[in-house]
Design brief:
Helix content: 10-25%
Number of domains: 1
Structural class: alpha/beta
Strand order of the largest sheet: 5-4-3-6-7-8-9
Strand content: 25-35%
Largest sheet: 7 strands, mixed
Number of helices: 5
Radius of gyration: 16 Å
Number of strands: 9
CATH architecture: 3-Layer(aba) Sandwich
Distance between the termini: 46 Å
Length: about 200
């Protein structure tokens, strides 16, 4: 008997259904929007595989009204999905290091009408957005070689970070009691590399 999807999974799938992937793809790639694979954008970046996005967002357990940071926002698809999950009472900030991709992603995001979310060019000397934290949730769509402490430090108490690290999906939870972060790994994945500032 097939188990019922979790409440988090159901919310993620509903948010993805409300955020068509083709609107965040180049014209040449739109015919392949329904394919469950990563699709090329430009400047070597990709739009992530839908099943991978769904798995990451399920792990992230995004509640309504949350403050969310989306690192490696690319075409704005994940930022728009996160905006749907948090609703108008929440705040979503997407960051993309490639300026042309960030500008295009911001246009795609604006077209959704979810004004509580924005997408900006990431500062090359800063990982994340420490000045706008702490964040309730952080999603990273690029592969880190190691878990970046600087992103863990940007989590609010009770916050969750989901990031691919050295080929595995990593979920970090910051306890509300001030204890050490809880780290767990789920599955094997491939992503474009995360560009970290030196010393991050």
């Amino acid at each position: 008997m097939t188990p019922e999807p979790s409440d988090h999974r159901q919310r993620v799938l509903a948010a993805m259904a409300a955020t068509p992937r083709e609107r965040h793809l180049t014209e040449a790639q739109r015919p392949y929007a329904g394919h469950d694979r990563a699709l090329p954008l430009f400047d070597g970046q990709t739009n992530s595989q839908p099943s991978t996005v769904a798995n990451m967002l399920e792990l992230l357990e995004v509640p309504e009204g949350a403050r969310v940071l989306d690192v490696g926002a690319g075409s704005g698809w994940s930022t728009a999905i996160l905006a749907e999950l948090v609703g108008p009472q929440g705040v979503v900030l997407g960051l993309e290091l490639v300026p042309a991709l960030a500008a295009w992603g911001a246009e795609n995001l604006a077209a959704t009408g979810r004004t509580w979310a924005r997408l900006e060019v990431a500062r090359p000397d800063v990982l994340g957005a420490p000045d706008e934290g702490p964040h309730d949730r952080i999603l990273v769509s690029a592969m880190a070689e190691r878990l970046p402490d600087t992103l863990v430090d940007q989590l609010a108490p009770g916050g969750i970070l989901v990031i691919p690290v050295a080929g595995r999906m990593c979920r970090v939870t910051r306890p509300t009691d001030g204890g050490p972060p809880q780290v767990e790994y789920r599955g094997h994945y491939a992503f474009v590399p995360l560009i970290e500032p030196s010393g991050a």
